[in-house]
Amino acid sequence: VMCELVCDMGPDFMQRDKADGYRVDVQKVRDKAKPNCPPQFIDLALACCSEDPEMRPTANDLSWLLRCSR
């Protein structure tokens, strides 16, 4: 959802398939990001899509990071 917000695109934009391991196309997200979107928010959205669950931020991490970015 955060990547959809970053790029101002619907869920079809983030279609992934089994052939590439359902990976998020990081470069596509960065290329399509709205020009006024803070780079930190893009990085956070992509961190939430990490293949490694240990690398994804927790809900508490997200809350803290979003509050600090105001």
What do you see in this structure?
The chain is an all-alpha fold and 70 residues long. It has 4 helices and no strands. The chain has helices at 2-7, 26-32, 39-48, 59-68. The longest helix is centred in the middle third of the chain and has 10 residues, at 39-48. The radius of gyration is 12 Å and the shape is globular. The chain starts with a helix and ends with a helix. The mean pLDDT is 81.
List keywords for this structure.
70 residues, mainly alpha, 0% strand, globular
How do the strands and helices of this protein lay out in sequence?
Elements: H1 2-7, H2 26-32, H3 39-48, H4 59-68
Globally, the shape reads: globular
pLDDT averaged over residues: 81
Main structural class? mainly alpha
Given as residue ranges, the uncertain stretches (5+ residues, pLDDT < 50) are none
Q: What gyration radius follows from the Cα positions, in whole Å?
A: 12 Å
* Main sheet summary: none
Summarize the structure.
The chain is an all-alpha fold and 70 residues long.
